[in-house]
Amino acid sequence: MMMARKAMEISTDFDLDLEDSTMMDTVPDNMTTQAPVSVDLGDFSEFEQGIEDITLKSEENIKALLYGPNGTGKTTISGTFPGPVLILDVNERGTRVLASEDGKCKKRAVDTFEMFVQAYWYLRSGKHDFKTVVIDNVTTLQEVAMRYIMNKEADFELSKDMDMPTRRDWGGLSQIMKRWLIDFRNLPMNVVFIAQEKRDKEEDLDSDDSSVYPQVTPSVRAILGAAVDIIGRTYVNEAVNAETGKTRTKFCLRIAPGPTYLAKIRLPIGAQTPKSIVNPTYDALIKIMNGGYKPKGESNGEI
Fold this sequence. Notes:
Layout lengths: L44 H5 L13 E5 L6 H5 L6 E5 L15 E5 L3 H13 L6 E5 L1 H19 L10 H19 L4 E6 L1 E3 L12 E3 L3 H10 L2 E11 L6 E8 L9 E2 L10 E3 L3 H8 L14
Parallel strand pairs: 1-5, 1-8, 2-3, 2-4, 4-5
Antiparallel strand pairs: 6-7, 8-9, 8-10, 9-11
């Protein structure tokens, strides 16, 4: 007789057990099922207590994904978010641009996945003053997570090649990244994910036919894309003044979706958004998300 297939489950323990996160072919004979729970279908008082109004105050925390080439302002934009700001520096070491005398931004080096998980529990505890956390960056975090997974696999398979991830390793990566990225997204604070940029056509960097998106696996990109309020691509635009001949450099953030660049912003019904923001800040983003953007007729769609 065919045994029922058990659905895949993800361990909620601090130390993810990859053996428990894989699908079982059959349910063991000695495995018991949970007894049915009695529910009073006529008493909804506890459910009703959890219903709350959707207001600008209740939705004030922004969850954002910023990506783009190096040196285009991703970390700088993060530093404009409400402080104190905690930068989780995942082998990035690019926080010098946030140095200041007021100490608004602080950093914590995160070199292992265990440290990344510990950062989550610290922030979730609420025993801190931080209003914004920045994961800088998710591209490197993915590599750190893969090393963690492969090291756990090596504990069970001594002959494992640590330079060659298996299909099982990639599956484990998707599961572990999904769990912890969503947990970070759900923190009651502003959350900024930073990622490096990838193009489909590396040999033609100036082609508008290339698709441009955050440099993470497709599954992680899908998870983040659905989890955040904003997906913005940073870039630098240089314009020459016709009268003076001087070149003006503008740091920009593309937030309007299009066929080439992955971008997104959640807006109220009827609200509008520019294609890009010049010298982007948290205040500019929150104004647009609250429906405060009014077009002024700029041909390039920038503000």
